[in-house]
Fold each of these.
Amino acid sequence: MTILTPNSPTAELQAMDAAHHMHPFSTNDDLAKKGARVITRAEGCWLTDSDGNRILDGMAGLWCVNIGYGRRELADAAALQIQELPYYNTFFQTTHVPSLNLAARLAELAPGDLNHVFFACSGSEANDTNLRMVRTYWHEKGQPERQVIISRWNGYHGSSVGSGSLGGMKGIHAQGGLPIPGIHHIGQPHWWAEGGDMTPEEFGLMRARELEQAIQEIGPDKVAAFIAEPIQGAGGVIVPPDSYWPEIKRIVKEYGILLIADEVICGFGRTGQWFGSQTLDIQPDIMTVAKGLSSGYQPIGASIVSDEVAAVIDATEFNHGYTYSGHPVACAVALENLRILEEEGIVDRVREETAPYLKQKFESLTDHPMVGEAKIAGMMGSIALTPDKASRAPFKAEAGTVGYVTRERCFANNLIMRHVGDRMIISPPLVISKSEIDTLIERAWQSLDEAHAQIKAEGIS
Ligand SMILES: *Cc1c(COP(=O)(O)O)cnc(C)c1O
């Protein structure tokens, strides 16, 4: 058979892709007709496609390439590790150097007493671990009836059966018989879309108190944990009102339930601190990490677990693990990634310099006639598209129509900016420079203009 190369003609690459490759979260028939864009290489914040276009990656891949593309050090770390020890398991009384080093490094970086690490290969897997771990924790503590996990509508925790159930994405629940039993969803702190006439602060408090109501309805002795992203990512970069997290903190403490912070996006500098939990001043019992842990160079995730939870779990045999838990190559690459993040002061630079600059530029997009609000925390931001800024009204067209048109204009203008419904979101590599931020904003503005003209011409309102 033919093996194609990055230099093969685009049409051939697309045809073979369409014939055999089933893309995630896609309608593959539509994609096949259009042809997937073939990304062939990348450097810094820039992707190159098979036609030679250079595209500014405003999404850091899928929220993960925090240190940017093309870092030779990570390639070297992988090559060395593959030669020395490409694989060994950690199930049967064995360990290896990269996994123990990375576990210790994560314990050092993570806030408070989060000192113990269970490895997975992705965020979904790590959340599956968490689901089983918190239920096992309460079982071992002699409270086996504490099994319900509370999470939020429109939260994202992955797309496996367990993590997809934890998440609150209706499109995921609709396929394959999810959610599994024992998961209860409450409302999200999404003021723009759901806040009505309340102030953001009133609304944030109201949504936090849904947690307390849920605990009381389910029974305080039946609730194991609450899981949430510090700032929702895939749900549309929803920065909660300031009143939200302090009230959640009060409630989890008062009812003694475990708090799982899903840091898969917020972790490793995205919000201007090492973890979103630090930015939002929360102290979880378990943190889920993945994505930025290796800057996406290798698939790896982990649960970072408190002394208290680990003490209970470690006293029994936890019948759980993945063949590639703590994969040595992934761990070696993650360690190198963390070294670069720290030694190059990337997280500090985000907080002190580039995120404030991006915030100022990004918020100026609200001057555009179609943009209602801009929300940003560190290097993750979103704008709400609306036909009427004052009333925060949605478009008459089906939700997501205008967002999709706008995203298509961005793509055509060589800017990767995603849409979630009619919100446009960004999450660029943390190494993005001020001049690249200028380019991002210019292209976003241009794309908004074109989308605005297009929806007028097509009578979309
Ligand atoms: C991406 C994501 C996940 C799932 O991670 P995968 O590596 O895709 O399985 C879980 N939680 C959050 C917050 C995410 O953004």
Note: Residues 63, 122-124, 127, 156-158, 229, 233-234, 262, 264-265, 290-291, 301 surround pyridoxal-5'-phosphate (CB under 6 Å).
Amino acid sequence: MAVENLYKVLFFLQSAAFTLFIINSYRSPISVHTPVERLRAQSHCERKPNETREIFVTARPTVSQTNEVVPMVFRGPLSNCSLADIKKRPGVVMLTTANLAFVDVVLNMLESVRRVGVCINTTVIAEDRKAYDLLLKYAKSDPAVHVQLTNSGEMDVIEHPRRHRSQYYGIMNKRQSYMLALLEQGLEVLFSDSDTYWFRDPFPHFQGDFDMCLRGHTPTRIIKKTDFCAGFIYLKPTNATIQFVRGWVGVLDSNKKKGSYTADQSVMNGLLKADKPVHVNIKMLEENLFPWGPTFFDSKWQKENHPTVVMHAASIRGHPAKLSKFKAFGMWHVNEKALML
Ligand SMILES: *[C@@H]1O[C@H](CO)[C@@H](O)[C@H](O)[C@H]1NC(C)=O
Ligand SMILES: *[C@@H]1O[C@H](CO)[C@@H](O)[C@H](O)[C@H]1NC(C)=O
Ligand SMILES: *[C@@H]1O[C@H](CO)[C@@H](O)[C@H](O)[C@H]1NC(C)=O
């Protein structure tokens, strides 16, 4: 009787050991000595699971259940998107711009986009050569992130205060021509300031019949009254949008020729209120889903648990103030001091 029980226990132990062996071999394929596995163990693409970096993701081969190595899908280091992911949203681009002083802010925004899992063909226009080199270094050959050097004259690398109008608005007022060039290629454009933070996919909010979709100070548009924010706009390449943006660029350029750097947003609002050069159909973004800085960072508003889609740190003025807010709210993911060429 005792002997029979001993056999049962031994049999159980043996089965358990075998099961453990299978689980272990499955979890750590590197320890299994097939030629393919040995190759994989040496590959640069293999990293220890805990070896994560803040904003850089390493592509690695996918291993199927049968341990065959499936062809590697290259995912961009900033976006974690493959070219196939980008092609799933044809005809749509995201556009943002930065000089060197705001490269970290752009990288932080892109990191928030990556965390949401949105794949979008993104163009980042660098306003100076150093910003270009730095962005290019981090984007590498990310299929989602295209870095371009400005085609309208390089700007200073530092952040200028608003009162230095030719530098501050100089940078802001170049962006409308970039939008126009994309619209003229028939692309839908999501223009986003670099100081936005994405919590959810905003694209479902850009559905419907409109020329431009953006946020205003009032919940509904009251023509001749409502002021809009020019820092986060979804534009469709309709005739009306293209004529409107051409008109906008025209006013900014003619002011500049007269030595006057008017705020891009004031010019946009002036034209929208006057329905010039054409009337544009506007879809308004909900203020609780697309909050601006002062609202979002208010502790009372935070307690209300709004399902924020994209936060725009508008009205939080200056790079240091923006960073300290992002950091205080756990929304800063870049080691800005380590950013270098
Ligand atoms: C990258 O994307 C793939 C596919 O969606 C996902 O399985 C993986 O977890 C992502 N990696 C990171 C670090 O987010
Ligand atoms: C991404 O956008 C650019 C325009 O900036 C366009 O030329 C390119 O074809 C797009 N790529 C994909 C994969 O859609
Ligand atoms: C847009 O304008 C072109 C000419 O500029 C015209 O041929 C076309 O019909 C217009 N399309 C719409 C949808 O109004």
Note: The pocket of 2-acetamido-2-deoxy-beta-D-glucopyranose (ligand 2) is lined by residues 86-87, 90, 93, 121, 123, 146 (CB under 6 Å).
